[in-house]
Amino acid sequence: MLVETAAHDRAPARTRPGRPLTSEQADRIRRIRRTGAYVLLAVSSAVFLLPFLWMLTTSLKSDADNLAFPPQWLPDAFHFENYVKGWSGSLPFTRFLVNTIVITGLSMAGNLLSCVLPAYAFARMRAPAATLMFGALMATMMIPREITLVPKFIMFSKLGWVDTYLPLIVPEFFGVALYIFLLRQFFTTIPQELIDAARIDGASELRILWSVMLPLARPAIAAICLFSFVGNWNQYLENSIYLRTVDKITLAQGLGMFNGVYVTQYNQMMAVSIISMMPILIVFFLAQKTFIRGVTLTGIAGR
């Protein structure tokens, strides 16, 4: 009996449950997990890229290739003239581009000006019922934007703002709950000692916001600018409600005018769509690291 017990104690470690993994086994598991993650990312990227690739190939097809059945991915010949014909055709897309830039730029400025101040106040200033007011602000995010379309249209029509840019720009100067929330979350991550030191030096609240908070909040500001840029650049519903004159409409509306009664030039539509997407892609890739950092930091703040 003693011999059997001693032999059992001298058994290899692999027969004992719960033994730690060796370094080779741990490396093998990490490689398997990393490979699985790469495969999952590759498949997900392919799913998201397929519509864009189809749009790109369609923009290079002839009219006959667009109507071919079954559909073919690659055209028989690449027709780059679709980009020139689509952009400089019967619709003034250069004018549409200028209108879109004006609306988007002013809307971004309004979002920043109207969201930075309340975000700083909710994050660093104490006031009676501040938590209640912040909760009421967050509750407005649950209201669908479509519900306010009719009351807003009635109000702006009585003001005589229909067929002007004012209904699209002025509301952006009154704050966006999501942007205020993101900035507030980022402001809470900034050490209180920096603000206390600035107050000891005699800095006002606006001075603290301008000289201390905003330079440190560049990632969050970049994220908000990108959200605002994409949202206003691709805005179609409200633009279609308020803008009536052809010289005042935006790129999104101009793309909708490609739908013909009897025939639609899908190749030219896709070509102009790719051109209209380029500013968004360029802005995102230029500010990619800052944008991701801003979204990450605003998401992990828990105070």
From TrEMBL:
Q: Which UniProt keywords apply?
A: Cell membrane, Membrane, Transmembrane, Transmembrane helix, Transport
Q: Where are the residues of the annotated region Disordered?
A: 1-25
Q: How does it sit in the membrane?
A: Multi-pass membrane protein
| Segments crossing the lipid bilayer | 37-56, 96-120, 127-144, 164-187, 208-230, 266-287
User: What top-level branch of life does the organism fall under?
Assistant: Bacteria
Name the Pfam families on file: BPD_transp_1
Its chief place of residence is: membrane
**UniProt-recorded name of the protein:** Carbohydrate ABC transporter permease
Q: Which organism is it from?
A: Nonomuraea guangzhouensis
